[in-house]
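Record type: monomer structure entry
Structure origin: computed from sequence
Chain ID: A
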Amino acid sequence: MRPRISVVVITFNEETHLRTCLESAAWADDLVVVDAESADKTPSIAREFTDRLFVRPWPGFAAQKNFGLAQATGDWILSLDADEEVSPELKHAILGAVAAGETAGYRIPRRNIMWGRWIRHGGLYPDWQLRLFRRGQGRFVERAVHESLDVSGPVGRLDAPLIHRSYRGVADFLARADRYSTLAADEWVASGRGARVGNLVLGPLGRFLSMYVVRRGFLDGWRGFLLAVLYAYYVFVRAAKVWEKTRLG
């Protein structure tokens, strides 16, 4: 018998994406959804696919994901976000990888879809994500903005893509940028660093040129240009919030 696979998803008001996510993972032996008391149809959608739904208050990304890992019963765990999908190619790659059992975990190339199209440049592909690992050998570590997965043992790579339908538009990007930049600025200040004029000017300019020119974001047309501008804006706002916190207290 092949090793059993658990898929773990955390949710909060994800009725827009969740059905597609869970449909793509319905082949798993064990499907765990941990919901942070959603006010929309997220819980009812989750129950269509699994009776392994856990509802609990939001404790933070890493803590919520680690709770989900603790509920998993499979030999291997695939951690997904609600706006991600397992491609058919990735399903087969996962089944082959766990059968071989050569490593403790695998990084997966994430294919970001924005404004209806795969973004191939600007540093957004391959967007390697460490998501598949043996149960008991992986744990999420809390960071201010993006939690990270720590796996004990060798880590390999799969070739098949994880599909990520990211920002729903400019407004969605700006709303998330406001939240994430505040968290990142708090972490920046807590480390004892401040912001200089260069962080406000050269940082955003460098991010734009890196994405649009060096990493050839221009090949993605208007989408590549818009993303380079938006990411540069994020870098500026993060530095501005650090400047404000350190100058004004």
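Annotation 1: Helices lie at 18-24, 42-47, 61-71, 88-100, 170-190, 197-214, 221-248.
Annotation 2: The longest helix spans residues 221-248.
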